[in-house]
Amino acid sequence: MLGNYSLVGYVIGAILCMILSAFKVPFKYIFAFGFSFITAYAIYMYFQYQSMGLYEHMIWATILRSTGMMILYTMCAVLGSIRLPLKYMSSWIFVMLFARSIIGPTVGTAIYSIERTSATLYGHTIDRSRLDESRNRRQLQSNGERQSIHART
Q1: H-helix or E-strand spanning residue 111
Q2: Average pLDDT score over the chain
Q3: Per-position b or e across 8-43, b if 16+ CB within 10 A of its CB
Q4: In contact, 95 and 80? CB cutoff 8 Å
Q5: pLDDT of res. 4
Q6: How far apart are the C-alpha atoms of 73 and 32, rounded to whole Å?
Q7: Which pLDDT score, from 0 to 100, does residue 29 have?
Q8: Less crowded by CB within 10 Å, the N or C end of the chain?
Q9: How many CA atoms lie within 13 A of 99 on its CB side?
């Protein structure tokens, strides 16, 4: 179901790339434009998405991500074809696929697993009910000390 919306995002991204290229917008601004779509996707996912949310809430996120990815891929391919000699084109395609399919998921998985491991380690050592009990005990002790100080004077 979301794959259909990915296709919508790819079409929007390709059309935006063609329009921006037709207006002779520099490559760096088109790259920034593509990354802004991916940033909007990340912001949407961080602030709006919930694990118990509806499936339909993922539609806009999918379109944003697909649009940004298509802009970046299209501009990388155009940049490679314009600035590189034809004999290096196969190497350029290999580097693009290597970065997308191997480097990106590897780094993302490593960062995610480190984050999950630290959250698991620190999450199991903290018992919230015991924190509340110790806080209440400290308040009672401080109140008792105050009462004993007032009783002495």
Answers
A1: helix 104-125
A2: 79
A3: ebbebbeebbeebeeeeeeeeebeebbeebbebbee
A4: no
A5: 86
A6: 13
A7: 93
A8: C
A9: 8
CB 60: neighbour CB atoms within 10 A?
A: 15
Distance, CA of 115 to CA of 121 (rounded, Å) = 10
Reported confidence tier of residue 64, pLDDT bands at 50, 70, 90: very high
> What is the per-residue pLDDT across 97-151, written as a single tens digit (0 to 9) for each?
787 778 878 888 888 888 777 666 665 555 555 556 666 666 666 666 555 555 5
Q: What is the largest CA-CA distance in the chain?
A: 94
Q: What CA–CA distance (Å, rounded) separates 70 from 9? A: 8
Contact (Cβ atoms closer than 8 angstroms) between residue 59 and residue 82: no
